[in-house]
Input
Amino acid sequence: MVDSFSIAGTGRLLFGAGRLSELPNLADTGSALLICGNSFLANRKSASISSEAAYVHTVREEPDPDLIDSLTERVKGKIKSVIAIGGGSVLDAGKAVAAMCCSDGSVEDYLEGVGTKTPTGETLPLIAVPTTAGTGSEATKNAVISRRGERGYKKSLRHDNFVPSIALIDPELYLSCPDPIMASCGMDAFSQLLESYISLKSNAYTDALAWRGLTLFLDNFIDLFNRTGKRSEQMGAIAFAAYLSGITLANAGLGTVHGIAGPLGGFFGIPHGTACGTLMPETMRRTAERLSRSEDADDSENRALKKLDSLGRYIGGSGREALLDLLDKWLVKLEIPALSTFGIEAGHIDKIVTASANKDNPWQFSPEEMADLIKARL
Output
């Protein structure tokens, strides 16, 4: 039984090549804050949008509380809406500023597990225009805010009302994305789909959406890097799959991959997609192995194995091993780096494990098992 289900709250989806041209008709740019990346400002097609915006701010990395607070102070009471055009960090910054323009204090006061205040849900209208197929932030109700360092964290500002008012997905914006970024973002989106598909909280609705997103990835993702087929159509498929990943994670939750990726980003500044990508194959293999050996597996755990088997058969194998082998091949093909590339050593593992979580993973790794998993990816 499914008690409730929400597809992007009250958000509106506009999807298709060339739809960025509709943006000026969707918002009064003259009273809006435009948050974007440098690459967007360098694009001739975007020049008119940026020149008309009341305020423009570029985001180069994952937003921290100081950025959100300073940007909010700059525009609060002076704008009527926010337009965020960029990757997941840009979209998260847009969500946070839109919300904090309607709240008092620092954004840190409202972060889950950090602050002591609960968001009211008040927010300015937000138009989210993703330029990478990764986080699915254009479909989710949370903004991820990071603080790096010894006491670092990655926490969410979350409320049902924080789903963007409009998600405008124009696959043409993705085509200039460099391969390493596309690989990192794609592995993030795929891991979100896969984790939500086998999640303990998955249901018939999320299964249907996750399956569609996963098969779109399996059919198109690597061909983008091989430069085979119609690239614009392939990119459209991956862009839509990433959007679906935002919906499924919001309704079914995530697993151990994301439970470890958060602390890795907070402590060491590892790009989120890279952390997910480097952890996903090993985490999925160990999840499957432990579930298959468990004598006490319940129905939800057995369903997870059957789902992995179904994906393996979809790509022409006899079961889950085909999928797990494919993920290993993706890791090599896409040159996703190991954790040691970012200065992580064996002495850091206990600290990472303490801050990590299994979330809704069908196998709940013990601290010792999680430490061994992280060690395997050094």
Notes: The mean pLDDT is 90. The domain at 180-376 is CATH 1.20.1090.10 (Dehydroquinate synthase-like, alpha domain). The chain is about 50% helix and 10% strand. The CA atoms of residues 33 and 75 lie 8 Å apart.
